[in-house]
Every structure is written in structure tokens, then in C-alpha cells.
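Quick one:
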Amino acid sequence: MKAAFQIENGGNGFIAVKLDTLEGLSESGRQAALDGLKELSAKVYDFKKVKKDPAKFEWSERGLLGAINGTVLSVEVKEYTGDTAVVRPISWFGNVGAVLP
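Output:
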């Protein structure tokens, strides 16, 4: 997720992480993931808890959600075998802004 953020982001005013994409991680593991992103932004949140905050997100005329000086990070699992996974990190920040390296 850090690499995707470094490629392009919507600002470092905050980072919201889609924790539900971190499947299989314990609560302490999810908290460690949030804490590990604090070097990118001092304000790191669970996306579910802040997605309705009008200071962080706005809706376009077409009904699409966009971040205001912030970025949403997540992980997409592409392949999973045994204890190995191939993942794609995602840095999303608006209606026309996303990075999927």
C-alpha cells in the first residue's frame, strides 16, 4: 500500500484504509497495518468509520465518492495458495484518480 501511495495519491491530509480487504489479519494485525502507514500521514483511519465524513469525502454530481486531500488504500488478493498470496495494492482518491500497480 505504501508503494501505491508513493506512485500517486490524493494528498496526505489523511489516509483511510479498507480494512476488510486485509482478509485473515487479526485485529492487532489490522492495527499494525494502520500504524505502519502513519509515516505517510499522521491521520490514518478505518475507511468504514470515516467514509461519511463530509470533511474527508465529497459526492460528485454523478454520485461518485471522492477524497478531499486524502487517499483510500486497500489490497486486492489476486491469487492465494497455502500461506502465499499475490496482492495488488490500490491507492484511490477520487472519481478519476486511482493507482493499481
